[in-house]
Amino acid sequence: MALEAIKLSGRHVELVPLAHEHHDGLAKAVQDGNLWQLWYTGVPAPEAMSAHIDRCLGLQATGAMLPFAVFDRASESVVGMTTYMNIDPAGPRVEIGSTWYAKRAQQTPLNTEAKLLLLSHAFDSLDCLAVEFRTHFLNHQSRRAIERLGAKLDGILRQHMRMRDGTLRDTCVYSIIPSEWPAVRSNLEWQLEKPR
């Protein structure tokens, strides 16, 4: 299974294959909330965005990642990034990760719909055995968001990786499997339809 670049569109969000032309929008989006200053994430600083895009496109060329720029359809602006990563074509199995949004886009229908689009494509088009989510043990906001999706905690990888500041990260690994997907999809669709 080689993942082909694809555009995924909904009412609130459009996920488009990452390209260098998204640099300025991403550099501006990351400044909304100073996201790179959160020590428990790997969000690139504005001046590191070009190198980050190069890295993601390099991983895409090897088949290990499929990165997307996230567009807010209401403002017609780039508000973040997300990826399929750690792609295992034999499964197939993917992780949805390296996701970040400008502060203004966090905890909005945009994120909910982006996850719905990515999960729908993974299960309904790619026939994945599982979709994973990974986050820092101490990133409580991310953990709550993953749990709200309906993903189950598979376990914690202790001292899984070294962070930029030298600290060791314990990584929480979550997943959704095909038998859980119908309920997860219904929940995400309900969240998008309920009054705000």
UniProtKB/TrEMBL annotation:
<feature type="domain" description="N-acetyltransferase">
    <location>
        <begin position="13"/>
        <end position="152"/>
    </location>
</feature>
<dbReference type="Pfam" id="PF13302">
    <property type="entry name" value="Acetyltransf_3"/>
</dbReference>
<dbReference type="InterPro" id="IPR000182">
    <property type="entry name" value="GNAT_dom"/>
</dbReference>
<dbReference type="GO" id="GO:0016747">
    <property type="term" value="F:acyltransferase activity, transferring groups other than amino-acyl groups"/>
</dbReference>
<protein>
    <submittedName>
        <fullName>N-acetyltransferase</fullName>
    </submittedName>
</protein>
<dbReference type="InterPro" id="IPR016181">
    <property type="entry name" value="Acyl_CoA_acyltransferase"/>
</dbReference>
<keyword id="KW-0808">Transferase</keyword>
